[in-house]
Amino acid sequence: MTENFPKLTFIASDTPEAQKALTELNKHYDDVGLDKADMIIALGGDGTILEVLHQTHKTGLPVYGMNCGSVGFLLNPYRPESLLERLNEAHHVDIFPLHMSATDKNGETHEALAFNEVSLLRETRQAAKLKISVDNIERIPELVCDGILLSTPAGSTAYNLSAHGPIIPLSANLLALTPISAFRPRRWRGALLPYHSRVKIEALNDEKRPVSATADSTEIRDIQSVEIRQLESSPCRLLFDPDHNLEERILKEQFMT
């Protein structure tokens, strides 16, 4: 091995496929541990790589994912051969997370990061009633809906797309604010916001119509308000094979029929 090759550490999900891949890779490549590594190899699905980003983003280490799950949109195909050469040729994409600050009904504040989206959802059979403000300007005084989400470009092909939100190219510097089953205003389909926007969402009549807020996998129940902004100074770097470029795959998603 030449000194040009990166030092690796492996993080795998607990699925049989990922554990089998981990065993195979450990036979051929050294795992130096997170504190000595130049790069993280994530084995699993999209959920796994999101967990890895949450766990390791403060290290500043780039993450190269290999798909051992079902969808694997944020990962490369699993191929154990020539891994070090592939890493040296990989392209990088910087992902900027959203910061969520949620205040619950007891007045406690909870903070979390989201690399895909922050979503608010009704907790009961009754629709949520939400007030939407952007950069301290009230935009919708009352949105009656099942919920709403704010998505990053990287997350725009996930929950946001399922809620009929727009797909955002990574270089667009935009965020997608997408309602979930909006009842009133019935024809509001959401908004595209500049990446530096600060979004505040307040739960109206929250005692009768409780609302939860979720940043990726971190859920806060019975919230009164949520403030969301993009962290421009804390990017995470994902690595992709040249023939598996994330920007190109997001672009292709817009032409799927």
Instruction: Find the CATH superfamily of the largest domain.
Output: Probable inorganic polyphosphate/atp-NAD kinase, domain 2
Gross geometry: elongated
CATH architecture label of the largest domain:
Sandwich
Task: Describe the oligomeric state of these chains in a short phrase.
Answer: single chain
Which series of helices and strands comes N to C? EHEHEEHEEEEEEEHEEEEEEEH
Main sheet specs: 6 strands, mixed
CATH topology call of the largest domain: Tumour Suppressor Smad4
Number of strands: 18
Structural class: alpha+beta
Give the DSSP E fraction (strand runs of 2 or more residues). 35-45%
Which ranges are low-confidence, i.e. pLDDT below 50, for 5 or more consecutive residues?
A: none
Task: Outline the structure in words.
With 257 residues, the chain is α+β, with helices and mostly antiparallel strands. The protein folds into two domains: 8-96 and 235-253, Probable inorganic polyphosphate/atp-NAD kinase, domain 1 (Rossmann fold), CATH 3.40.50.10330; 98-230, Sandwich (Tumour Suppressor Smad4), CATH 2.60.200.30. Helices cover 16% and strands 39% of the residues. It contains five helices and 18 strands. It has helices at residues 16-26, 46-56, 83-89, 159-162, 246-253; strands spanning 8-12, 39-44, 63-67, 76-77, 91-95, 98-104, 109-114, 117-122, 128-134, 137-145, 147-151, 174-180, 191-194, 199-203, 211-215, 218-220, 223-230, 236-240. Strands 1, 2, 3, 4, 5 and 18 form a six-stranded mixed β-sheet that branches. Strands 7-6-17-14-9-10 form a six-stranded antiparallel β-sheet, with no helix packed on it. The termini are far apart. The mean pLDDT is 94.
